[in-house]
């Protein structure tokens, strides 16, 4: 047979194969489809009956769960999702990577099938777990009692890569029972879950300080080794942070040793055998290289495909905004409604993201100072006026630079606690600023000092008696954000950055340095996220003016990247637009006022409630939001001595 006849027959065969092929299946080639565990023909998968090659529900619970407006009967699905360790089509054409399992939880819509499809809830971290949808469902998604969101969406959450699967508060002994093993196999071997990310490798060296010090810095003599170990290294290692005593967080030598310890911990942790995974062909992969936000986004899209959903909606809080934004950027055609609350800086750059952390904290402290100063001119009673006014900043600086280092260290610690718990702790911080500055007792300050002392003792003693699994509390943050962000600062570059930020954002630098060190010392090569943007998605972006974790500027940057979206600004304090726990009381009060034809009092709690109601209306209908909307906070913080006397706070 001549060549032309062979070619003709070959062409006919190819055309027959193409004609019989579903284009959604044939897109990536047979080998890639098989590697991903997809069937060769499309099936009508659903939330209740997902693709068994990708997702298996192994525990279905029927339970009455708390919501803001009472108990609601829910059907809760728990199962395992099978994902490739490496989402790389080019790699998959040559070899099969290891596969891992991720634990998933879904809350079925009250009115199945869900009118609006699935919505993925991610609570941030990095390190959000499968309980996020349940948490948001109980707090944010049902504040008005109409059950609109939980009726019309199937709510989903996933254990992000590296999350401790066994730490869930529901799937454990005495509750629903221990987590069943992953049911999937590959090449005849059962798959394991993605390993929990934690780092405490330095612990094995602490009984040999000289050996540890040799890893940290060149040894310059026995006296120097012993002095540095006892003065700097051991206190940082014991507490997992720079201790506050004697203003150590402002001491450059302490900051240098902190950088060295975290760098060594990350390097040792990255190379530990528990993160090594073997592919079917024998190649060994390091799982720590594949815990990025892009990996998470691809995992979630496999989840979407497993339940046969055409589109996925999102509610991302804090770092969850990064996951939602990356997903929307990579998979815009399957992205439905998106809410991003408490935006992470979208620039995949170590310095930009660390600086953003400092800016957010400084903005909160600036707002507290402003509310204190303005209390003088608000026609308040004597014990309602902020005791640190006027000149709050000058008084605080005077104490922090003064000779009494004990008072200075307590104030520094209290100021940082305050920015994260502004409404609760700000009155006590103002009382202590005035007391330490004037030397006269101010009501409220003496209440918080014993609590700070107890916190320090507990923090140090707990780490000295038993090893802390994640010594510096930065492991999963280092792995995720370090992989996501370009830029690695060596020790001198880091110190120069710290000196600048310490001068411009003195309170913010205390927290921002942790993120800078975590990202700068991560040993893996970076795989920065793509530009978080899409010109067509109508995302809702919520920014708080006084958010310590995520600076308000981030929301403005994110809105610029989603030009068809909507920016909503909350003027208040706190991380994300968290609805107060007394939302049920607010709802009852509102309904009572409505029945009596009177207007309810417009408080900060009511303002938050009204703001969140608009967000939920958008999720329900896709409408109801106006770009540039500001949710007004009607009341400044109460910072007088009377407010300090009423405070009930437990420092954790």
Automatic annotation (TrEMBL):
Residues 1-21 form the signal peptide. Keywords: Signal. Gene3D superfamilies: alpha/beta hydrolase. Transmembrane segments: none annotated. InterPro entries: AB_hydrolase_fold, Pept_S33_TAP-like_C. Residues 517-579 form the Peptidase S33 tripeptidyl aminopeptidase-like C-terminal domain. SUPFAM superfamilies: alpha/beta-Hydrolases (SSF53474). The keyword Lipid biosynthesis does not apply. This is Peptidase S33 tripeptidyl aminopeptidase-like C-terminal domain-containing protein. It comes from Durusdinium trenchii. The lineage of its organism: Eukaryota, Sar, Alveolata, Dinophyceae, Suessiales.
């Amino acid at each position: 047979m001549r060549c032309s006849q062979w070619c003709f027959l070959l062409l006919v065969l190819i055309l027959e194969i193409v004609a019989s092929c579903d284009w959604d299946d044939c897109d990536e080639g047979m080998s890639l489809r098989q590697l991903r565990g997809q069937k060769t023909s499309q099936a009508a998968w659903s939330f209740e009956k997902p693709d068994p090659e990708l997702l298996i529900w192994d525990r279905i619970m029927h339970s009455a769960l708390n919501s803001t407006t009472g108990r609601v009967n829910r059907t809760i699905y728990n199962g395992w999702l099978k994902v490739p360790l490496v989402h790389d089509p080019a790699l998959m054409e040559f070899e099969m990577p290891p596969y891992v399992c991720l634990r998933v939880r879904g809350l079925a819509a009250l009115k199945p099938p869900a009118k609006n499809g699935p919505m993925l809830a991610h609570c941030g971290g990095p390190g959000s777990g499968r309980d996020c949808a349940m948490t948001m469902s109980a707090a944010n998604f049902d504040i008005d009692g109409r059950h609109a969101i939980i009726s019309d969406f199937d709510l989903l959450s996933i254990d992000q890569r590296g999350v401790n699967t066994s730490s869930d508060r529901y799937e454990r002994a005495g509750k629903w029972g221990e987590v069943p093993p992953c049911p999937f196999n590959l090449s005849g071997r059962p798959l394991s879950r993605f390993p929990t990310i934690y780092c405490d490798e330095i612990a094995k060296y602490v009984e040999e300080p000289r050996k540890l010090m040799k890893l940290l810095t060149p040894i310059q003599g026995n006296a120097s080794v012993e002095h540095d170990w006892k003065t700097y290294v051991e206190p940082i290692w014991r507490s997992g942070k720079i201790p506050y005593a004697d203003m150590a967080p402002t001491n450059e030598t302490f900051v240098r040793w902190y950088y060295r310890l975290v760098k060594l911990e990350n390097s040792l942790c990255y190379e530990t055998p528990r993160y090594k995974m073997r592919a079917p062909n024998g190649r060994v992969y390091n799982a720590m290289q594949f815990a990025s936000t892009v990996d998470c986004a691809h995992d979630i899209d496999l989840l979407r495909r497993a339940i046969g959903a055409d589109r996925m909606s999102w509610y991302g809080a804090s770092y969850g905004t990064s996951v939602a934004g990356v997903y929307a950027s990579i998979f815009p055609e399957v992205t439905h409604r998106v809410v991003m609350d408490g935006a992470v800086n979208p620039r995949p750059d170590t310095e930009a993201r660390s600086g953003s952390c400092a800016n957010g904290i400084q903005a909160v402290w600036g707002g507290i100072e402003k509310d204190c100063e303005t209390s003088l001119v608000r026609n308040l009673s004597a014990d309602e006026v902020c005791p640190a006014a006027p000149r709050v900043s000058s008084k605080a600086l005077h104490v922090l630079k003064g000779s009494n280092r004990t008072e200075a260290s307590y104030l520094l610690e209290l100021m940082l606690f305050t920015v994260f718990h502004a409404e609760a702790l700000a009155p006590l911080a103002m009382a202590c600023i005035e007391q330490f500055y004037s030397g006269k007792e101010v009501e409220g300050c003496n209440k918080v000092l014993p609590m700070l002392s107890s916190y320090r003792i507990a923090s140090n003693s707990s780490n000295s008696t038993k090893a802390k699994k994640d010594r510096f509390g930065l492991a999963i943050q280092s792995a995720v954000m370090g992989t996501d962000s370009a830029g690695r600062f060596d020790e001198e570059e880091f110190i120069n950055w710290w000196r600048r930020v310490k001068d411009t954002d003195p309170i913010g630098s205390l927290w921002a340095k942790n993120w800078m060190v975590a990202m700068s010392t991560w040993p893996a090569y970076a795989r920065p996220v793509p530009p978080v943007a899409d010109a067509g998605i109508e995302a809702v972006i919520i920014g708080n003016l006084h958010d310590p974790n995520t600076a308000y500027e981030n929301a403005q940057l994110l809105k610029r990247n989603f030009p068809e979206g909507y920016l909503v600004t909350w003027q208040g304090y706190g991380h994300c637009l968290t609805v107060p726990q007394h939302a049920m009381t607010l709802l009852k009060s509102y309904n009572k006022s409505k029945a009596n034809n009177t207007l309810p009092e417009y408080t900060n709690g009511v303002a938050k409630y009204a703001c969140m109601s608009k967000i939920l209306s958008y999720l329900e209908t896709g409408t109801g939001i106006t770009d540039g909307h500001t949710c007004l906070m009607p009341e400044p913080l109460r910072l007088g001595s009377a407010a300090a006397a009423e405070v009930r706070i437990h420092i954790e």
